[in-house]
């Protein structure tokens, strides 16, 4: 039996490094693409391509990890990420950027579902929420430090951040190869071959949880795509202030996911924590409408971030508890819905912002309330099915 505390520490380091590598290129890619002749529309397509590939391939990688084990699939995902970063660094034409993003999205779609399934493999149901929260914290912290590193190293040469990301991914690959042990036994892999189909999974009440996560992802992506414009229009905040605001929000979210989620799910249950997270997110969206300066922007966005940070780990934990086995399929599908939210959210947010600057946040409130309604539908369907047994 694997030591879950030690392994969670390794998985935290793996996901932190993966997200640092991913985050390093975020502030650089638009300027890099522009240098190679990308129009704003082509830049949008370049950004969306990665998420589209993740949406398509995350469920596939999750199912493969159920069959052949978590470790080899995770190594494929991280190696794919490293390859895509080096291809980006060496790109001399726009089509090469698209090729690199397609390869990166296709292969790195393996990372999140496999790590999440690994956590489900090694944690008891009681500690599942804590494990999922730790991974969420690693993702959040990686997103904080990555862009900051990218911004610093891009000043002399725009290609340097891509090489840095590639090296970071190679270090992560070695960490997985030599330190991480396989979490599935051969017997476990054999059993997973008898897993239910995706169609069967959608006939169960858990389908509501995937839709709930999609609504949450759409609203978050819409906020992220438009908040810079909103903060400038409302409070005259520039890029430096925005960087600090997102860093404060990210740190608060990471602290909540790394420590509070586990205690809350253990005491209250995942369902109650999901509801609390959605309600706090609604409060955060509402407060954002009243931003006046840096301080209010930082506080109100952090309130939203705290609520949002409670939801994903709790949904992951609840889904894997209901699945009992075949965790890779479950977490792959959840990652796919997350990616779909990131595809739809930014253009929807931008379109709504064009109508009225408050609309992305009003729509965030509406989507969050709908997500809460979807959770109640899930509980009703669950109760009905249990009553029929």
TrEMBL record:
UniProt keyword annotation of Transmembrane helix present: yes
Gene Ontology MF annotations: transmembrane transporter activity
Record GO cellular component, one term: plasma membrane
Subcellular location: Cell membrane
Residue ranges of the TM segments: 7-29, 41-61, 73-92, 98-120, 132-154, 160-180, 209-230, 242-261, 273-291, 351-378
Residue ranges of domain Major facilitator superfamily (MFS) profile in the record: 7-383
Keywords, alphabetical: Membrane, Transmembrane, Transmembrane helix, Transport
Tree of life domain: Bacteria
Keyword flag Manganese: no
Topology with respect to the bilayer: Multi-pass membrane protein
Protein name: Major Facilitator Superfamily protein
Organism: Gracilibacillus orientalis
């Amino acid at each position: 039996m694997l030591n879950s505390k030690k392994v969670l520490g390794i998985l935290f380091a793996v996901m932190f490094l993966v997200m640092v590598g991913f985050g390093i290129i975020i502030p650089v890619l638009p300027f890099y693409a522009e240098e190679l002749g990308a129009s704003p529309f082509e830049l949008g397509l370049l950004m969306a391509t990665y998420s589209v590939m993740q949406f398509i391939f995350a469920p596939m990688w999750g199912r493969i990890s159920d069959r052949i084990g978590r470790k080899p699939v995770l190594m494929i995902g991280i190696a794919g990420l490293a390859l895509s970063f080096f291809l980006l660094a060496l790109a001399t034409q726009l089509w090469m950027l698209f090729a690199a993003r397609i390869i990166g999205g296709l292969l790195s779609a393996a990372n999140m579902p496999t790590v999440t399934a690994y956590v489900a493999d090694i944690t008891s149901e009681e500690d599942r929420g804590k494990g999922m929260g730790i991974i969420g914290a690693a993702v959040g912290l990686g997103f904080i430090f990555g862009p900051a590193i990218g911004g610093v190293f891009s000043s002399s040469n725009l290609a340097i951040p891509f090489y840095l990301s590639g090296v970071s991914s190679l270090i992560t690959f070695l960490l997985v190869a030599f330190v991480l042990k396989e979490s599935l036994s051969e017997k476990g892999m054999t059993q997973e071959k008898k897993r239910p189909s995706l169609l069967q999974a959608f006939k169960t009440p858990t389908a509501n949880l995937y839709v709930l996560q999609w609504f949450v992802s759409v609203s978050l992506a819409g906020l992220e795509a438009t908040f810079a414009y909103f903060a400038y229009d409302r409070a005259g905040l520039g890029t430096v202030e925005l960087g600090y605001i997102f860093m404060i929000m990210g740190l608060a979210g990471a602290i909540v996911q790394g420590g509070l989620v586990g205690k809350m799910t253990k005491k209250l249950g995942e369902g109650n924590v999901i509801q609390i997270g959605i309600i706090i997110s609604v409060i955060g969206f509402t407060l954002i409408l009243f931003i006046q300066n840096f301080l209010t922007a930082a506080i109100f966005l952090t309130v939203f971030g705290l609520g949002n940070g409670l939801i994903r780990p709790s949904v992951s934990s609840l889904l894997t508890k209901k699945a009992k086995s075949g965790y890779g399929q479950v977490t792959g599908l959840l990652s796919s819905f997350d990616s779909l939210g990131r595809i739809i959210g930014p253009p929807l947010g931008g379109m709504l912002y064009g109508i009225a600057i408050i609309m992305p946040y009003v729509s965030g409130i509406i989507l969050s309330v709908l997500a809460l309604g979807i959770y109640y539908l899930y509980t009703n369907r669950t109760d009905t099915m249990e009553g029929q047994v």
